[in-house]
Design brief:
Length: 268
């Protein structure tokens, strides 16, 4: 698959997911001619369809399509065996009906179950293209092709986008009601002298709070500090006196020793 085509397919499926709420894995309804064409081209639908849809998918077959393949006999025996591998999707028909009628009834007018339809019938594809939100697959030669979104699906997509962006009628009515109520409040305002600007008014001075406890505590702390400083000064003076007394005692001792030494030398 070409890169450009793959990007286009991815964009298509993203659009279906966002606007029509498709979920993964995608459910693909397959008709008899599509299975036969895939078998003739030797295509593995369990691999090709997820590649085209850019995500996982479940291939589904109705009992009416299986009955149609069985009625064709030996020519469609291979396609009938291949259809047994797919998941069966129940339909309301007790007796088998043409598969185009069966598939169109399942899709209905809105595709409520979000099916992807894989069909080789051009008439059926044209019929389903009128229903918004129906991705269509078909085989051209050996290529599996996803048709671009139909006009109906594009119109619904634009409508959903506009509904998201624009206000609804109920919302507009509520907005009108709010506007009327706001105008009524403005008209009900009393006309008269306005209050002065609060910034231009002098502020009242606050009364000083009693600080007796704080002052008493501060004075007691100061007294304690002074007493401790006085005690420290007394201790310093005492230490100085002790040092002085020690220094004087050592000086006297050294002087006495100096005087005694020369007398001893003369006697000798």
């Amino acid at each position: 698959m070409r890169i450009k085509r793959h990007k286009d397919y991815k964009r298509y499926m993203n659009m279906y997911c966002q606007t029509f709420k498709f979920h993964k894995p995608y459910q693909v309804l397959v008709d008899a001619d599509f299975i036969q064409a895939a078998l003739d081209q030797r295509m593995d639908l369990r691999v090709m369809i997820p590649n085209v849809l850019c995500d996982a998918s479940k291939q589904m077959v109705t009992p009416c399509t299986m009955a149609q393949l069985k009625s064709r006999g030996e020519e469609a025996s291979g396609a009938f065996i291949a259809s047994k591998r797919f998941e069966k999707r129940r339909c309301k028909h007790q007796d088998p009906v043409e598969e185009s009628i069966c598939i169109s009834q399942i899709i209905a007018d809105t595709n409520p179950h979000n099916y992807v339809v894989a069909s080789q019938s051009k008439r059926l594809r044209v019929q389903l293209a009128q229903v918004p939100g129906v991705p269509l697959l078909y085989i051209h030669r050996s290529n599996l092709i996803l048709e671009p979104p139909s006009e109906a699906s594009l119109k619904t997509c634009k409508k959903i986008e506009t509904d998201k962006t624009h206000a609804k009628s109920k919302e507009l009515q509520t907005l009108k009601g709010l506007k009327v109520s706001a105008l009524a409040k403005l008209l009900k305002k009393k006309m008269g002298p306005k209050e002065p600007n609060p910034l231009s008014i002098k502020k009242k001075k606050k009364k000083p709070e009693p600080t007796t406890t704080i002052t008493s505590t501060t004075t007691s702390i100061k007294k304690r500090g002074a007493e401790s400083e006085a005690d420290a000064g007394v201790e310093k003076k005492k230490t100085r006196r002790r040092r002085k007394s020690k220094s004087t005692a050592t000086a006297d001792a050294s002087a006495t020793t100096n005087t005694t030494t020369p007398a001893g030398s003369e006697s000798s």
